[in-house]
Amino acid sequence: MKSISLYILFLFLTIVLTSSFTKNHNILNTFSDEINFPLLNLKNKKVEDKIYKCLIDSINNHFFFEDIIPAKNRKEIIDRFKSDKEASFYLTHKLSLSKNTISINLHYEIAHSNGYDSWGEQFVFNAKTGERISIKEIITKQNEFETIFKSKQNKYIEKSKLEIEEILKLDDPNAKYEETNNPQLEYCFSDYEYNFEIEKDSFFIYPHCGFPRVIRNMEPYEPIKFSKKELNHILKKEYK
C-alpha cells in the first residue's frame, strides 16, 4: 500500500514538472521584453500617424507578408513580435529630431531555428508633413554630391577589403583579398537614396549588404559619414 502511494505521488510530481517544462519550453521568444518600437508622441497626430504607417508597412512587408491581415498599428506590431513561436525578436531604434526632419533608424536582431540575423532600416521624414524623404530631396546639386560620395565610397571599399583580408589571414597567412570573397561589396550602396539618417551635425548613409561579414563573424558595416559642414554648399537651406 505504501509503495502504491509513493508511486502515485511520483506520477503526480512527474506530470506537474513535465507540464511546467513544456509550458516554458514553448516560449521561444526570449527577446519579448526587448521590442523597442519608436514612441513619437508628436503634437501633430496626422504627421505621427503617417510616420507610423510607413514604419508599419515596411515591417509588415519584411516580417508578416504571409499573414492574411497585416498589422495595423504599433501595438499590433509589438504583439506579433512577442507572440511568434518560431523566432525571437530584438528591436531597437535611434530617433533623431531636428527642426525639419524626423530620422528613425530601426535595428533588428532575430534568432530562429536556422541561425541568427541582424540588420537595420533607416527612415527620414519631413517633420511638417510626415512624408518620407530621400537624400536627393535635400541636395541642390546632385552631380556634385555624387562626386563627393563616390570618393568616400572608394575609400570605404578599400578599407573594408583590408579588414576582410585580415580575417582571411587568420585561417591562411598567405590569403589575399579577391573579389570572389565579397561579390556584393561594390553594390552595398547602390540603393542608398533612402538608406540614410540625419543627426544634429551629420548625415550617415548605410550600406545594405552583409556577406561575407556575417559568415566571418565580423561587426556589421559602418555607415559613410558626412558632416553638414562639408555638404553645406549643396544642402537646401531647410536642412542645414
- Rg value: 24 Å
Largest sheet: 3 strands, antiparallel
Low-confidence stretches: 6-32
Beta fraction of the residues?
Answer: 15-25%
Helix/strand/pairing category: alpha+beta
Please report the total strand number as a whole number.
Answer: 6
- Whole-number average pLDDT? 78
End-to-end CA span = 87 Å
* Portion of residues within helices: 25-40%
The strands making up the biggest β-sheet line up spatially as 1-2-3
How do the strands and helices of this protein lay out in sequence?
Blueprint: H1 2-25, H2 45-63, H3 74-83, E1 87-97, E2 101-112, E3 115-126, H4 142-168, E4 196-198, E5 202-205, E6 224-227, H5 228-231
Antiparallel strand pairs: 1-2, 2-3, 4-5, 5-6
Explain what the structure shows.
The protein is α+β, with helices and mostly antiparallel strands and 240 residues long. Helix content is 35%, strand content 19%. The protein is built from five helices and six strands; from the N terminus they run H-H-H-E-E-E-H-E-E-E-H. The strands form two sheets. It has a three-stranded antiparallel sheet with strand order 1-2-3, with no helix packed on it. It has a three-stranded antiparallel sheet with strand order 4-5-6. Strand 2 (101-112) and strand 3 (115-126) form a beta hairpin. The longest helix has 27 residues, at 142-168. It is flat and about 55 Å long. The chain starts with a helix and ends in a 9-residue tail after the last helix. The model is unreliable at 6-32 (pLDDT under 50).
